[in-house]
TrEMBL record:
Keywords: Membrane, Transmembrane, Transmembrane helix
Organism: Aspergillus homomorphus (strain CBS 101889)
Name of the protein described by the UniProt record: Rhodopsin domain-containing protein
Compartment(s) of residence: Membrane
Region span, Disordered: 329-350
Gene Ontology CC terms, in alphabetical order: membrane
């Protein structure tokens, strides 16, 4: 291992291993979600599914670029910036620094697009909860515009904060007054991103709390839906450790940016909790048979028995959130009918 591989607070080996390991569940999660959509539900992917696939595509592209063009140059440039004396300086160190700056910005931009696509996937996922609520639809559109605006701002700051490409002035971006500009813009982006996440969380929290289930189940469902809280925490960690000593820690920034994108893709794909909504909508106890589910999943459509399929523990509604949305609207309708019947009974009694 080269001396520069241990530069920074995250070693090169830890960087590569952890990013590679977390990529696996992200890929498997997306594949599992598509399998459920196409094989179990027998439906075409919806908007949130496509956004998740796009997020995974951006994530894979950014990781490939990071492995091929960024990681080696990043540790070398950072080690030299920290003044490590036992690092072998290549003869083309100037070109190495120039290429690192360019490819690092490209890599961070693509990973930010993956992170933003995850947020849009969550937003479209929760839209199904409010499809019949006019006021909440307007709120949803406002949040969509805000999220796109933050996406554009986050895409620009990677280039605006240090616009010197193949220019010696790029060496001053991570230190001095330019460092404060990068830190300030990163903090502003983290704040805007966190506000957007909190605004998105208002939708599931508001709707779930209106569903008539027991309080422990409400807490469980809320925790399942509010997975963006983890993404908020990762963004805060990234910004808090952005500066190391007297310079911007590019290793720290890149690592937590990738970590947030990978965790976000996995969490967006982890939607198995929706089977809980189906269970609450049924008037009978479902038959939780994993063996039956596996047999029915790989059976051809002509041989599947629709009568027994409804008993599967992974039976899905027409859309991911249709069951919960239907529960909310059915509850409201039921309350309206009950009040109407009560008024009729009162008139008959008089």
């Amino acid at each position: 291992m080269a001396p520069q591989d241990s530069a920074g607070r995250i070693s090169k080996q830890s960087f590569i291993v952890s990013i590679s390991v977390l990529l696996v569940p992200a890929i498997l999660g997306v594949l599992a979600r598509l399998f459920i959509r196409l094989r179990i539900q027998r439906q075409r992917p919806s908007t949130d599914d496509w956004l998740l696939v796009i997020a995974l595509g951006f994530l894979l592209a950014s990781i490939i670029i990071m492995y091929r063009e960024v990681v080696d140059r990043m540790y070398l440039v950072f080690a030299l910036g920290q003044g490590m004396t036992d690092v072998a300086i290549p003869s083309d160190i100037v070109q190495v620094s120039y290429k690192f700056h360019l490819w690092s910005d490209v890599c961070l931009l693509i990973s930010w697009c993956a992170f933003s696509a995850v947020k849009l996937s969550f937003l479209f996922f929760f839209r199904k909860l409010i499809e019949r609520m006019r006021a909440w639809q307007l709120y949803w559109w406002a949040i969509l515009i805000y999220t796109i605006a933050v996406l554009i701002y986050g895409s620009l700051i990677f280039f605006v904060s240090c616009p010197y490409f193949f220019d010696p002035r790029e060496n001053t971006c991570a230190t001095g007054s330019n460092k404060q500009v990068i830190v300030a813009e990163s903090i502003a982006l983290a704040v805007l991103d966190t506000v957007g996440d909190l605004l998105i969380l208002v939708i599931p929290i508001n709707v779930i709390w209106k569903v008539r289930v027991r309080w422990p189940q409400k807490v469980l469902l809320t925790c399942s839906l509010c997975l963006t809280v983890i993404m908020i925490a990762l963004s805060i960690v990234r910004v808090c450790g952005l500066v190391a000593g007297d310079m911007v820690d590019t290793i720290w920034e890149t690592y937590w940016q990738f970590l947030s994108a990978e965790v976000g893709v996995f969490l967006a794909a982890a939607v198995s909790f929706r089977s809980l909504f189906v269970a609450h909508n049924k008037s009978y106890a479902p038959n939780y048979s994993i063996k039956k589910f596996l047999q029915q999943s790989f059976r051809s459509p002509q041989k599947r028995d629709p009568l027994t399929l409804s008993d599967s523990w992974l039976e899905m509604p027409g859309s991911d959130m249709e069951a919960l949305s239907g529960t909310v609207h059915a509850t409201a309708g039921k309350n309206g009918i009950t009040r109407g019947e009560q008024r009729g009974a009162d008139l008959e009694a008089n």
